[in-house]
Amino acid sequence: MSDIASGDLGPWLSPEDLDLVRRKVPMLYIDALPARLDGHGEVESVGLLLRATAGGTISRALVSGRVLFHETIREALARHLDKDLGPMALPRLPQSLVPFAVGEYFPTPGSPFHDPRQHAVSLAYVIPVVGDCQPANDTLELTWLTPAEAVTPEILNDMVEGHAILLKQALAHLGRLR
Asked: Beta-strand (E) ranges in the chain?
């Protein structure tokens, strides 16, 4: 677990400095798809977050967040999973953190991965969780869906920019996209 508390900006930047850097330098993020596995290690269900944006819209999303200065990818994954799913989610981070995909977000409208704030690169992972998830912070709820339910047009159309693509890539990577 990271020594950086979720509310501590510590070695990070002020909001004003962060806005400036976002306009000048690509930022590093992680995206994680929580998964429940059966006894054979096959994905039974995936967890999608329901979130409210600052503008008041409701959307579905993967666990996602910035990697802080001097924080490892493992620490960032653990911190964001803990923040969004709660401390009893008990995520099982793999020994080798090889992402199933890399999302490249651009501020350019029309790009498949669009983030109007910045150019960002996101390493995407599927993370098994075995504990009790209690969403917190800006997460309204966590919905567990079968892989088939997760890729219905209703669900995909409710997802934030780029996350629908990552969800489909994750399920294809796991052999669960039909």
From this structure: 27-37, 43-52, 58-61, 63-66, 101-105, 120-128, 139-145
Average pLDDT, the chain: 89
Mean of pLDDT values over 6-17:
66
pTM of the full structure = 0.86
Query: Which backbone phi and psi does 169 adopt, to 5 degrees?
Result: -65, -40
Angle (nearest 5°) at CA 177 between 171 and 178: 175
Long-range contacts of 116-120 (CB under 8 A, 24+ apart): 117/19, 117/22, 118/22, 118/23, 118/26, 118/27, 119/22, 119/25, 119/26, 119/27, 120/26, 120/27, 120/28, 120/29
